[in-house]
Amino acid sequence: MVRPVQVVKDANGLRFSLDGGRGSLQGDRPLTVKKIFQGGPKDLLQPGDEVLQIGERSLQGLMRLEAWQLIRALPMGPVQLLVREKGKL
User: What is the Cα gyration radius of the chain?
Assistant: First the structure.
């Protein structure tokens, strides 16, 4: 199931890490939530959820580093994500 999720960027970023992406060690894969850090959006995301979009920007075809740079460039405050829940189409 694809759904919108609103998270908050603070001095520690979005408080979750990403895995996969174009050119990853496992090959080209979708960008997924790898780990949710303390204070992160544990009630909204879970490891394995695919992050399809951040704000208006699609993550399709991006390397993990490119997605990380996009996140770093975001202003602090609310951030809209579009995610596909792990294991759900």
Answer: 12
* Confidence bin at 8 (pLDDT 50/70/90): very high
The helix or strand, by DSSP H or E, that contains position 68, with its residue range, turns out to be helix 64-73
Cα separation, 4 vs 7, whole angstroms: 10
- 84/53 Cα distance (integer angstroms): 10
**How far apart are alpha carbons 60 and 39 in whole angstroms?**
27
In the CATH scheme, what is the homologous superfamily, with its name and number, of domain 2-84?
PDZ domain (2.30.42.10)
The domain limits of the chain are: 2-84
Give this prediction's pTM: 0.92
